[in-house]
Design goal:
This protein is α/β, with parallel strands linked by helices. It is built from 4 helices and 4 strands; from the N terminus they run E-H-E-E-E-H-H-H. About 45% of the residues lie in helices and about 20% in strands. The protein has a 4-stranded mixed sheet, with helices on one face.
């Protein structure tokens, strides 16, 4: 399985989300390469939504499974002000927290039939990446 990440964000966030995402994605994918999941999911697509509260209604969280492509698509909201005001490490951690939320969202999807073991392994991958990205 591979993770793919993107975002829908307010311009005031600037390039911070992109920089944090570019740190996370290769680390997660490297760790995922060493993990054997029970299910047949091939792509874990996460779109981070970082918008002001008054705009969030137009950017709902979403979970969608494309069975033919073996791709799960998740749109996960992050707190705009908290992300904007955070330092680089905090922004990385906020995105990792959103990835954890995306795993919970996958677990709620009846048509995906994600095994408990896979949810556990994916969360473990995220926490291993967190340790690697935040060595202190």
């Amino acid at each position: 399985m591979k993770v793919w990440m993107s975002s829908e964000k307010e311009a005031l966030v600037g390039k911070a989300e992109h920089a944090a995402r570019n740190k996370i994605e290769p680390v997660i994918n490297r760790i995922l390469d060493k993990v054997n999941l029970v299910g047949d999911l091939e792509k874990w697509s996460v779109i981070f939504i970082i918008m002001r509260d008054e705009w969030l209604e137009g950017y709902p969280e979403l979970k969608r499974y494309h069975k033919a492509k073996k791709d799960v698509e998740l749109r996960v909201q992050l707190p705009f002000s908290e992300f904007r005001d955070a330092d680089e490490n905090q922004q990385v951690n906020l995105l990792l927290d959103a990835l954890l939320r995306s795993v919970d969202m996958m677990g709620e999807m009846k048509n995906l039939k994600l095994k408990y073991e896979d949810c556990y392994l994916l969360k473990e991958v995220i926490e291993r990446a967190r340790l690697e990205l935040n060595p202190t």
